[in-house]
C-alpha cells in the first residue's frame, strides 16, 4: 500500500509517495535524492544514517517514513547556512574528526544532538553527578556518541571535535553547557 507523506528536509518541504514499509532512510535517499544520511548496517547499529528528526538525533534506517509524515528532517548537508559551516562541521574539519568520510554525516548530526542534550541537562550513563549540569569530558562524549561507529577509527578526532564544538557553544552562550 502506498501513502503520500510530506517532510521538511533541510528547510525545504518535500512531498513523496512511498510504500508504507519504506524506511525514512530509503525515502530520503532513493525517493528524494538526499544522500547525506548513509546506509551502513541498515539495522540501527552503526549510526551512519543519523539525522536530526524534529530536533532530536534519530536513526533513519529504523524509522518508517509514514510514521514521520509532517516531520522536520535536518541532515548534515542542511546544518550549515549562507554564513558557512555549522560549528560542529567546522570542528570536525579542525580536529580531523573524519577519515574516509562515510560515517561523518551521521557523526556530525549525532554530535549536534549530543550538544543539544547536554545543553538541556540530560544525563548520560556515565554522568557522575546527577544533581549538577552534565559536563562534556571525554568519557561523556564517548558514551553519548557510542551509537555512531567509525570503521577508520577516527575516534580521537571525533571526541576532540565534539568537545571543541561544545566549548565554543559554551563561550557563545555565556557558559550554558
UniProtKB/TrEMBL annotation:
SUPFAM superfamilies: 2Fe-2S ferredoxin-like (SSF54292), CO dehydrogenase ISP C-domain like (SSF47741). Keywords: Iron, Metal-binding, Oxidoreductase. Residues 3-79 form the 2Fe-2S ferredoxin-type domain. InterPro entries: 2Fe-2S-bd, 2Fe-2S-bd_dom_sf, 2Fe-2S_ferredoxin-like_sf, 2Fe-2S_ferredoxin-type, 2Fe2S_fd_BS, Aldehyde_Oxdr_Iron-Sulfur, Beta-grasp_dom_sf. Gene3D superfamilies: 3.10.20.30, [2Fe-2S]-binding domain. This is 2Fe-2S iron-sulfur cluster-binding protein. The lineage of its organism: Bacteria, Bacillati, Actinomycetota, Actinomycetes, Propionibacteriales.
Amino acid at each position: 500500500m502506498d501513502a503520500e507523506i510530506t517532510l521538511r528536509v533541510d528547510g525545504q518541504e518535500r512531498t513523496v509517495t512511498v510504500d508504507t514499509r519504506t524506511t525514512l532512510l530509503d525515502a530520503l535517499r532513493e525517493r528524494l535524492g538526499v544522500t547525506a544520511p548513509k546506509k551502513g548496517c541498515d539495522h540501527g547499529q552503526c549510526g551512519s544514517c543519523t539525522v536530526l528528526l524534529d530536533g532530536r538525533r534519530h536513526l533513519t534506517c529504523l524509522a518508517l517514513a509514514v510514521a514521520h509524515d509532517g516531520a522536520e528532517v535536518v541532515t548534515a548537508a542542511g546544518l550549515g547556512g549562507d554564513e558557512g559551516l555549522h560549528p560542529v562541521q567546522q570542528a570536525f574539519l579542525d580536529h580531523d574528526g573524519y577519515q574516509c568520510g562515510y560515517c561523518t554525516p551521521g557523526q556530525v548530526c549525532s554530535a549536534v544532538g549530543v550538544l543539544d542534550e547536554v545543553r538541556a541537562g540530560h544525563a548520560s550513563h556515565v554522568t557522575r553527578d546527577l544533581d549538577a549540569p552534565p559536563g562534556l569530558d571525554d568519557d561523556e562524549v564517548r558514551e553519548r556518541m557510542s551509537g555512531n561507529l567509525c570503521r577508520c577509527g577516527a575516534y580521537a578526532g571525533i571526541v576532540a571535535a565534539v568537545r571543541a564544538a561544545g566549548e565554543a557553544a559554551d563561550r557563545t552562550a555565556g557558559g550554558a553547557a
